[in-house]
C-alpha cells in the first residue's frame, strides 16, 4: 500500500533528501491516492460512495499545504515547496507545526511517487453520513480555516472599575 525507498541502516527511514515540488502537487496526490484506494476496497471502513478529492494546495511559508479526501480518511498534508529540500526522516515520526489557526501534529509519511510528506488526519474513518459533496466542501473549508487567524472575542466586563483599570495598563 504505502511504499517508500528504505535506508539499509534503518528500514523505516527514508533513504534520501526529498526535493520540493515546483508546481502544485494536488493532482499528483489525488492520482496516487486513487491507485492506493484500489488495494483498500475490501477494508470495512472503506466508503465505496466516496471518491478521492484533493483541492489545489496553497503555498504557505514555502511549503505546499493541502487537504485530501479519500474513501477512508480526510487529512491535511504538507509537501515540500519549490526549491525546498527536506532532510530524511523516519516514517511515523511526529512533527508539530504551528499554522495560523492552531498547531497540528503531523506524521511523517511516504508513498512511492511522493516519498516524503507530512499528514494529519482530520477524520478517520469517515462519518457514515458524509456525502461526496459534503466531503469536498469540508476539505475546501478546512484548508481555508487552517490559514485563518483564530478570532477570540472576550466578553468585556462592564464594571466601571475594570474599565478604568484596563485603561491604566
UniProtKB/TrEMBL annotation:
Gene3D superfamilies per UniProt: [NiFe]-hydrogenase assembly chaperone, HybE
Source taxon at top rank: Bacteria
Family: Belongs to the HupJ family.
Protein name: Tat proofreading chaperone HybE
Amino acid at each position: 500500500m504505502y511504499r517508500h525507498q528504505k535506508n539499509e541502516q534503518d528500514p523505516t527511514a527514508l533513504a534520501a533528501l526529498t526535493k520540493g515540488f515546483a508546481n502544485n502537487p494536488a493532482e499528483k496526490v489525488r492520482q496516487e491516492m486513487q491507485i492506493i484506494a484500489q488495494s483498500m476496497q475490501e477494508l470495512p471502513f472503506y466508503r465505496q460512495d466516496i471518491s478521492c478529492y484533493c483541492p489545489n494546495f496553497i503555498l504557505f511559508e514555502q511549503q505546499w499545504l493541502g487537504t485530501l479526501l479519500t474513501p477512508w480518511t480526510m487529512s491535511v498534508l504538507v509537501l515540500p515547496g519549490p526549491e525546498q529540500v527536506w532532510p530524511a526522516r523516519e516514517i511515523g515520526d511526529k512533527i508539530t507545526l504551528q499554522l495560523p489557526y492552531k498547531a497540528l501534529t503531523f506524521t511523517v509519511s511516504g508513498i512511492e511517487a511522493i516519498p516524503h510528506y507530512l499528514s494529519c488526519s482530520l477524520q478517520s474513518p469517515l462519518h457514515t453520513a458524509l456525502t461526496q459533496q459534503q466531503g469536498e466542501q469540508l476539505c475546501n473549508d478546512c484548508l481555508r480555516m487552517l490559514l485563518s487567524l483564530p478570532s477570540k472575542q472576550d466578553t468585556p466586563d462592564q464594571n466601571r472599575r475594570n474599565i478604568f483599570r484596563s485603561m491604566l495598563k
